[in-house]
Amino acid sequence: MAGLLSKGITLSYMLVDVATPLTDLLEIPELGGKADKVEVTSLSDTSKKYINGLVDYGDLEFKFLYDNSTAESNYRVLKAMQIAETNEEFLITFPDTTEFAFSGGCL
Fold first, then answer.
1. Contact 21, 11 (CB under 8 A)
2. What is the dihedral of CA 20, 25, 29, 32, to 10 degrees?
3. What are the helix (H) ranges across 1-92?
4. Hey, is 23 helix, strand or coil?
5. Distances (CA, A) of 11 to 8, 24, 33, 88
6. What is the pLDDT along the chain (107 residues), one digit of tens a residue?
7. Percent helix, strand, coil in the chain (nearest 5)?
8. In what order do the strands lie in the sheet with 18-21?
9. 95 Rama class: left (phi>0) / alpha (psi -120 to 50) / beta
């Protein structure tokens, strides 16, 4: 049975077009989304009809081991992003080199 071990997954942020890994990542969220179901039943239909709506990816919550020891520590980097209230570019890299890029802010 083929599978993918979660060991070795990294989360990086883009700093001047260079992927800079955030240290001490403990957990990543489930990735992907589900399309909303939109009802399109008319009065002439004998049963309900639906179409796929927009995909909702939800919030992506990551867990880290707390580290505030240096200017490059995960806490300080993420806290600076939160204070700046900017959207950043992030990159998740899996052990098989598959990548998932997204943009978002820190809450």
1. yes
2. 30
3. 74-84
4. coil
5. 10, 10, 19, 12
6. 455 567 889 999 998 889 999 999 999 888 878 889 999 999 999 999 999 999 888 888 999 999 999 998 999 999 999 999 989 999 999 988 999 999 999 98
7. 10, 35, 50
8. 18-21, 10-15, 88-93, 99-104
9. alpha
Rounded Cα–Cα distance for residues 51 and 61 (Å)? 29
Give the whole-angstrom CA distance, residue 71 versus residue 62: 20
Structure tokens at 84: 């700046």
Break the chain into its structural domains and give their ranges. Answer: 10-31+58-104
Q: Is the torsion defined by CA of 44, 45, 46, 47 positive or negative?
A: negative
pLDDT of residue 47: 96
Phi, psi of 17 (to 5 degrees): 60, 20
d(CA 77, CA 19): 14
Quote the CA–CA distance of 63 and 83 in Å, as a whole number. 19
